[in-house]
Structures are given as structure tokens and as C-alpha cells.
Amino acid sequence: MVTGMTESHPKITKAVIPAAGLGTRFLPATKATPKEMLPVVDKPAIQYVVEEAVAAGLNDVLMVTGRNKRPLEDHFDRNYELESALEKKGDESRLARVRESSDLATMHYVRQGDPRGLGHAVLCAAPHVGREPFAVLLGDDLIDPRDPLLSRMVDVQEQRGGSVIALMEVAPEQIHLYGCAAVEATDDGDVVKVTDLVEKPERADAPSNYAIIGRYVLDPHIFDVLRTTEPGRGGEIQLTDALQQLAADEKVAGPVHGVVFQGRRYDTGDRGDYLRAIVRLACEREDLGPDFKAWLRSYVTEEM
Ligand code: G1P
Q: What's the CA gap between 69 and 66, in Å, rounded?
């Protein structure tokens, strides 16, 4: 416990990243490589997510993994062989790039075993998290590092208690791809009160066009709820269903609020969006951007 914090508002330090999915949308690339390791420019997608957690002050990261996910552990660990080869060559800049991921955060791993859904993956984090609020970051959602979202959610949770989810307005024909929230306005422009939630509704049944994007700051009571949450959509234990129970009764674990995100987000689990993320982030890079943009401009005008 950090001095000065009251028991009801312990400081949030832990991030949970579910990473047990099979990545079938990227086969055959993901046959022997975890989807989280696919590069976005020159860093694996998962590294952006861990960097985002660290940037929001969460240095304790638990990954919920499964079979064939060993490369994730290796990526965030030291690689002495590679480091000593680069040291011998005097290649300081690459050496720094190699060490970046192992110096980033305190990493922990737990295996999900049976793939019983996102809610079940989060429940696997219960022994590690204990009874403090914590964050969940889904690896498929990449939030542009220039548009901080998680730190805002942590602030809102510290001010208002309970749980906080990230929401984004999407086109009505997209809502069936997401968890969807019924909301009420608050006195804060980017914060709404969540009154109901439904996982991947049909367009006609959706209570709004507010979609859950993969960032959550959760009250630990979510674990108690998840233990008794029945399988829902797709026969899986859904995190959205457990949150719906919290939203329905504030007395259990405080309110559920949403932070409405208006920044740049990429779904790296979708092939088209994955390509867009690479192009946009490459264009922004000081080292690669100028040449790449010049090429892109001529490619678009001459070839398309
Ligand atoms: C999960 C959640 C869903 C959320 C989405 C965000 O679904 O279950 O509520 O809207 O992440 O990316 P998935 O995309 O893993 O099927």
C-alpha cells in the first residue's frame, strides 16, 4: 500500500494482458508464431501494449498465455547470446533495442489451460492481482501512443471508484463486433456512466453505438462475479457479462464508467487494420517516415 492512499483507493500498479488466443485470422503466419509477436513496423504488436501499460504507471504485467506462446516470454526476457554478439560488434543502438523489451516491466505469466473465453482468462489473473483494482489490456487493440487512454482511465477510476471501461463510437453496422454499452452523460465531457452492457448484439438490439475497446480498469470484485458467470455468447465466459452485473448493482463494487476515446486505435487482429497500423506508424517514424512517405505518395499516384 502506498502511503497516503486510502484503503478504498489503492494505487493501480498491475496490468493483465490476455494472450492465449489462437490468431486464426492470420494463418498461416500464426501457425507456429503467436499472433502477438507479429511485427508492427519493427516491434511485435504486444510490445506496444506493454509499453502502454508502463506509460500509464503499471509496471507489473501479467500475461495470460497458453500453449505455443513461449516466444512471448522470450521476447520480454534477456537474450545474452544476441546481446554479447552486438556488444562485440559495438552496435550500441541495436543493443539498446534488444534490451528495451526486457527492461520494460516486471513480467509474470500464467497459463489459461482451457480456452473458455475472455472472462475466464481474466479470472486466471485472480491469484496474482489479489484485492486491488487492476487494468486489462487486450492485445488486438493497439492504441496510438500519442493518444493516451489508459492513464485517463486510471485517473477516472481513482476519482470515481468502481470500474472503468474504454468506449468508442462506431458505425451501427460495426456494433455486432463489440461489447456494447448503454450510457448516461456525466459532468465530465469524456466520461459516461454505464447502465447496461451486452456482448456483440445484433444491430437492431444494440442499446447504443458505444463499443467497448480493449482497455478496462476493474474493481477486484469482478473475480467474484466471474466465478459464477455462466458461458454467454459463443459458449464462452464473457467479461462483458460480468461487467453487466457490476453495472446493474452499484452496491456490489461501485459504479461502472466509460471513458469515450476519440484517438487513433487499430485492431491488429484484423488484417486490413493491421496493414493500416503499419503504414500509419511507419509514416510517423523519424528514421523511416520521410523515405517511406515519398515512396507511398508515388505508389498511390502512379500505381493506383
Ligand atoms: C473482446 C470483448 C468485446 C470487446 C472487444 C474489443 O471481443 O469480448 O466486448 O468489444 O474485445 O476488441 P473479441 O474481439 O476478443 O472477440
A: 6
